[in-house]
Write a sequence for this structure.
């Protein structure tokens, strides 16, 4: 499919508010009986969108906000208190504020807890936690790396071959830290809406590959997002 592109040149804040509005619109379109799950990534690219989501949340019905379950799309295999924890960043920049405002409760937050005593570091438990919340992402937010990676799915990495709707752990990430958890390709492509953040000059090669239909997913994993029901991209690149 073709992605809808939101151009951010000169007004990144406005572009991200537009994306935040779209995320909530997709959630509003679901019936009251349908589960709502938003999968969020870590990293620098998502910071501005977190601010936009918080700002846009004040315009949303409280009953809608109270239904959304927040999951991690990727995580480092570290304690939640570690400064490298993706969840820790989301907590500081978004979750704490929404909880303090009474917009959401702690029960709606689903951090990935690294369980070092388990062979899969807690991935099977997290998969069951997602299943209990509906089993798939309504919206998945993905920052794009310079190499075109999304979540913990790096170019030519064996994780791209996983077929199931699950969470994966591995210890050979080409980008430090080596120990990571990631949503599988099937979880990402099964989303109602995928949001891609391609921001900064360093992402230009990845941005070019994302739009090149001759480039395989194995070489540019961000192209997985195009297989979701709807794909929205925000970029400040021409």
């Amino acid at each position: 499919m073709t992605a809808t592109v939101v151009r951010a040149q000169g007004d990144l804040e406005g572009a991200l508010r537009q994306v935040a509005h779209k995320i909530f619109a997709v959630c509003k379109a679901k019936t009251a009986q349908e589960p709502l799950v938003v999968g969020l990534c870590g990293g620098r690219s998502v910071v501005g969108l977190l601010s936009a989501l918080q700002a846009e949340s004040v315009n949303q019905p409280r009953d809608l906000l109270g239904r959304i379950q927040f999951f991690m799309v990727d995580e480092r295999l570290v304690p939640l208190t570690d400064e490298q924890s993706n969840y820790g960043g989301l907590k500081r920049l978004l979750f704490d504020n929404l909880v303090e405002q009474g917009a959401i409760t702690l029960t709606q937050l689903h951090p990935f807890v690294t369980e070092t005593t388990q062979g899969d570091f807690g991935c099977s438990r997290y998969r069951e936690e997602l299943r209990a919340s509906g089993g798939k992402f309504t919206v998945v937010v993905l920052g794009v790396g310079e190499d075109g990676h999304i979540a913990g799915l790096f170019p030519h990495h064996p994780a791209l071959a996983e077929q199931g709707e699950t969470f994966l752990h591995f210890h050979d990430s080409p980008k430090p830290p080596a120990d990571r958890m990631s949503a599988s390709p099937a979880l990402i492509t099964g989303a109602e809406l995928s949001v891609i953040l391609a921001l900064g000059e360093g992402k230009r090669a990845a941005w070019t590959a994302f739009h090149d239909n001759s480039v395989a997913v194995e070489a540019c994993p961000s192209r997985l997002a195009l297989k979701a029901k709807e794909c929205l991209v925000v970029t400040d690149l021409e």
